[in-house]
Sequence to fold (279 residues):
Amino acid sequence: MRYLGVFLPDPLAVPDGVNGYLAGQLEISDPGCVQRYTERRTTRFEHADEIRAAYGLREFEAVEKDLREWVDARAWTTSDGPKAIFGDAVRWLRGRDVLLPGVTVLARLVAQVREEAYQRLWDTLYGMLTGEQRRLLDSLAVMSEGERFSLLERWRRGPAKASGLNMVKALDRVSQITGTGFGRLDLESAVPARRLTELARYGMTASATQIRRHPPPRRLATLLSTVVHRESKAVDDALELLDLLMATELLGKAERDSDKDKVRAHPLLARASANWPPR
Fold:
């Protein structure tokens, strides 16, 4: 019980080596006599009660509500998966001297509470939107007639290379995203920042078609977090592009002009350069 955290349904279902080791401790010459342990049906229940009392062990049902609250807080504030939460839930129970439930019972509890936390996240963000904002977000994942990509997919694409035309496109993208006004919503006061980041990460990788298949709360919550994330990223992209243009175009041109001025300042070198290569 100390190793597994539970009482065995069949108290005889232990390795022979364990029986032999305990028999040596108890100075029992015939370890096989343990087979008589189940002759009296209530013996193992009485002993289990004595062990609970001696070690102050509690049943799972006594702390199930507290565990649900702990799992909910963990799922609400982090993006940890069910495996990580399940393992920590086992440690949570052991640390409080609670007898572990069956694996399926605990796994089902973790999965259910995580799903409820996700639904609350989507519902919270969905509830912060007006009807007009919901229609605007929905339109982002729809391809207009004659377009190859939705507006969401175009916003997710950064500038391909440094050029004046791409600089104009980058600034236009910043203007479009900030013009939606979603960046002014105080999302972090309603939901944890890590959950917003997780939603935005999914929104950045999933296709527009995949996002459209989700129910309205999840779909709009994903689009909202993605747009808010893209607003700051679009500004960063534009600044990086401007910095690259300054380095490659403006500063590069200045260096080339400077080199020409140096050549002009040395007539002999200029004449020699003009006659090179020899004919």
